[in-house]
Amino acid sequence: MAVDSEPERLGLRYLTLAYRVRKVVDKHMASSGLSLARWKVLEILDAKGSIRQKALARELGFAERSITQAVESLASDRLVERRPDPADGRAKLVTLTDEGAAALAAGTEAGAEVLQRIFGTLDRKQLASLDKLLNVIDDAAGEN
User: Residues of the signal sequence (predicted)?
Assistant: First the structure.
């Protein structure tokens, strides 16, 4: 992709940086057996309790096949439990296990430490400016 304009250049720089920060966060969360994506699944389960797989997929914006694979992986690591929904035996409920709650806590702490290290280099004014800019970009991306 040829970069012809300042918005394109900065957009590509932002995407590259976001990818780099995510890799650093994933690396630090790995000690708890999580990545940012796996952490997000556990975070939703922690907040919502038992939830149908289909609803979990919607919450995350995942395709149903992708959430099935993610839940199977988390279940094989005993971080979540899957069982039939008593209201509809065809549906599966996903629940956070005690091991999952412990991994979530450890992953949250590891992620917070690295984000504090990265974003803690900014002063309050810079953080406020970044927050405003991220809101503008988020609005322009149409994800609100």
Answer: none
User: Which parts of the chain have pLDDT scores under 70?
Assistant: 1-3, 143-144
The angle subtended at Cα 78 by Cα 74 and Cα 82, nearest 5°, is 70
For residue range 27-53, what is the model confidence (pLDDT) as tens digits? 999 999 999 999 999 999 999 999 999
| Domains in the chain: boundaries | 24-142
Instruction: List helix spans (H) across the chain.
Output: 6-29, 36-48, 53-60, 64-76, 98-119, 124-141
Residue 94 · residue 53 · CB < 8 Å: yes
3-class SS of residue 51: strand
**CA distance linking residue 96 with residue 64, whole number of Å:** 19
Strands 80-85 and 51-52, sheet pairing? unpaired
Domain 24-142 has CATH 3.30.420.40: no
